[in-house]
Amino acid sequence: MRSPRTLLGAAAVLAVAVAAACGGGGSSSGASSGGSHSPVTLTVWHQYAQEEAKPFENGIAAFEKQYPWIHVKLELQPNPDQDTFDPNLIAAIKGGNAPDVAVGFTPQYAGQYCSSGLWEDLTPFMQKDHMSISNFAPATQSYTNIDGKQCALPSLTDAYGLYYNTAMFKKAGIASPPQTMDELAADAKKLTVRNPDGSIKVAGFVPLNLWEELDIADIGHAFGAQWFDSSGKAQLATDPAWTQAFEWQKSLVDWYGYSNLQKFYATYTNSEFNPTNAFETGKVAMVFDGEWRTAFIRREHPDLGYGTAPFPAADPSVYGSGRVGGTIVGIPQGTKHPQEAWDLVKFLATDTPYLVSLANELGNVPTTKASGDSPDLHLGPQFKTFVDIWNNPKSSMYPPLLPTGAGYAQLADDFDAKWQAGNVPNLQQGLQQLDTNIDNQIQQGETP
Amino acid sequence: MRTPAQRRRARRRVALRKYATVLGFLSPWIIGFALFTGWPMLLSLYYSFTHYDLLTAPSWVGLDNYRFMFGIGTIHGQHESDPYFWRAVRNTAWIILISVPLRIVVAMLTAMLLTRPKRGVNVYRTLFFMPSLAPTVGAALVFVYLLNPTTGPVNRVLSTIPGLNAPLWFYDPTWAKPALIVLGLWGIGDAIVIYLAGLLDVPRDLYEAISIEGANAWQRFRHVTLPMITPVIFFTLVIGVIDGFQYFDQAFVSSTTAGTSPGDPQGSLLFYGVWLYQQAFTYFHMGYAAAMAWVLFIATMATTAILFATARKWVHYGGGMS
């Protein structure tokens, strides 16, 4: 029991000492790189697989050209389910053989990465390079700065908004995409086509929780609802916007008939990322979806006539904003080359040609202002909507990331699944119980 | 001439050497067990009294995890409890109480039918056994497809029956567990084989004897077959109950395939194992998950012990053994 721990302790001390000795520390300066420019090999763990691998590797090659003394060794570390944080990475950090740079696809775990200190705080590096987080859109903070630590930077992101089928809009006599939730419900009804038995042939808009990307969190956001009060307690029962959001959803679900919607849902199970996707095949007229759908449509249904817009909002002040969040880059604890690791992190997060070319290839939103405004970005007129959503000051990655993560949001999804099915007799009481459960779960995750 | 003391010492040496040989031969297992089962179990017992999130070192919290589980007493001065624990317990109890007896009855009846055919016996037996060779995950995926309310073949057939409102299966909390029961009964071949062996083992002369007494088919079953296969029933009961406590794969796969999160629809497939998994690997409440695992272990042990205690009353071993 005792000896291994002592050994580990000694190893940790040694690692810190080595890191301090090799890194050049905070004293060295210069925007390009501190240190001696003696050859260094950085190990990078990333998740760019298949068709995404090549553009990423090209970017790394450009980095190596800029920093000829740094050689980058890429290691693909897929985390296919993404329903847990990168377990290999955590094991490697704890085992003292972490990569120098991590490129992660699961920003929802940034809370734990930051608060545990397993990803280094980048603030000293940024200060040294006179780099400010305000170079990025305000939403960046919501998933890279947790517990007061800036432990990651964004490198392309997703942004979510409304897709609508222009031909169906024209046929129904609707001139422009809905901007309020009332308009959304009215248009949804107008665009819906039913079979003789009342079942749904074409849905105007499917209001079910977790229909593809739609979450009750998004409906809540559209009503300006806030998850927590100033003391950090869940307030779904006390913020009236939540009640409005739940009731808006329920009334539209009831208009369709819950079991009709469930059958419709079952028909399109697992077709979200297939060419049989309901929006792409004209079975749904409006859908809440991410910017990547533009690339899917270009590839799978290039003839589909569609437009994009921010998701409608009942609260006019939030119109134009939405849910965002994407790839994060950072430095796992224990790197022996912190300066060079920072050089790469900075490149991946801020190099305009890199971000623009990767965005063009992958169809994701570029994360710096310069790359978002770049004339070289050629992703079509529908894509601009998502760049604007990313840059909107009211956009963020919600449900809010806490130091213990955002797993509590599952409780809201579970509640909404019952609510939309008509299995919650009293909304107010249900929401009170939900608040208690959320508070409990957050507390359960906190280190006492 | 050796003194008695010397002889005793010599005997002890021989005995020790024998122990050493035995231990030597057992050592692969002992080391394997200690390293990969015993030690992790002890560690998990320790973790069950800690707050442990994998990222930071475990910190001791005493009985808090157990209090949170059962909703007893206060933690940090507040009453807190796991909102889903009892739901997971109820779902697990349901699957054990319904599925285990059903499997026993269906396996036994199928096995009895399989003793009948005069020709092609092996073909039938193979056919009935085959489904149990399918991997659980694959079978669950296929059943989600088969039972899809709109596109699945089962409901396409059901929808031709006028007036019948076909169930939504994995999309309806009332029908999700029955769908899993159907899946379980489909893959019942392993139990059938055991029952078949048990049935064929019943001595013919007992049937002859009771027939001479004028017994009808029911009486033959009730007074010969049933008592003679109680050891098989007991075996499948114990294994079924233990499997039921650990019910996971089918539920996890079907709920995440048809729905979006483990336990869908509406928590109806949130079994104990599924919730334990989520606590551990979705929320990283490792300490709490360890506590849940220990409660599961104790519940399984206790139930098995109770079953063994009752066995004396109803399990008959042939050949005069009691």
SSE topology sketch:
The complex is a heterodimer of chains A (448) and B (322).
Chain A: H1 2-23, E1 40-46, H2 53-66, E2 70-76, H3 87-94, E3 101-104, H4 110-116, H5 123-128, H6 141-144, E4 145-146, E5 149-150, E6 153-165, H7 166-171, H8 181-191, E7 193-194, E8 200-205, H9 216-222, H10 240-256, H11 258-267, E9 284-290, H12 292-300, E10 306-309, E11 324-330, H13 338-350, H14 352-362, H15 369-373, H16 381-391, H17 409-420, H18 427-445
Parallel strand pairs in A: 1-2, 1-3, 8-9
Antiparallel strand pairs in A: 3-11, 4-5, 6-9, 6-10, 6-11, 7-8
Helix pairs in contact in A: 2-14, 9-10, 10-11, 17-18
Chain B: H1 4-47, E1 50-51, E2 59-60, H2 64-70, H3 85-114, H4 121-129, H5 136-146, H6 153-158, H7 173-186, H8 189-200, H9 204-212, H10 217-245, H11 249-258, H12 272-281, H13 286-314
Antiparallel strand pairs in B: 1-2
Describe the structure.
The complex is a heterodimer of chains A (about 450) and B (about 325). With about 450 residues, chain A is α/β, with parallel strands linked by helices. Chain A has 2 domains: about 5-160 and about 325-390, Periplasmic binding protein-like II (D-Maltodextrin-Binding Protein, domain 2, 3-Layer(aba) Sandwich), CATH 3.40.190.10; about 160-320, Periplasmic binding protein-like II (D-Maltodextrin-Binding Protein, domain 2, 3-Layer(aba) Sandwich), CATH 3.40.190. Chain A has 18 helices and 11 strands. Chain A has helices spanning about 1-25, 55-65, 85-95, 110-115, 125-130, 140-145, 165-170, 180-190, 215-220, 240-255, 260-265, 290-300, 340-350, 350-360, 370-375, 380-390, 410-420, 425-445; strands spanning about 40-45, 70-75, 100-105, 145, 150, 155-165, 195, 200-205, 285-290, 305-310, 325-330. In chain A, the strands form 2 sheets. In chain A, strands 1, 2, 3, 6, 7, 8, 9, 10 and 11 form a 9-stranded mixed sheet that branches. Chain A has a two-stranded antiparallel ribbon with strand order 4-5. Chain A is globular. By secondary structure, chain B is mainly α. Chain B has a two-stranded antiparallel ribbon. Chain B is flat and about 90 Å long.
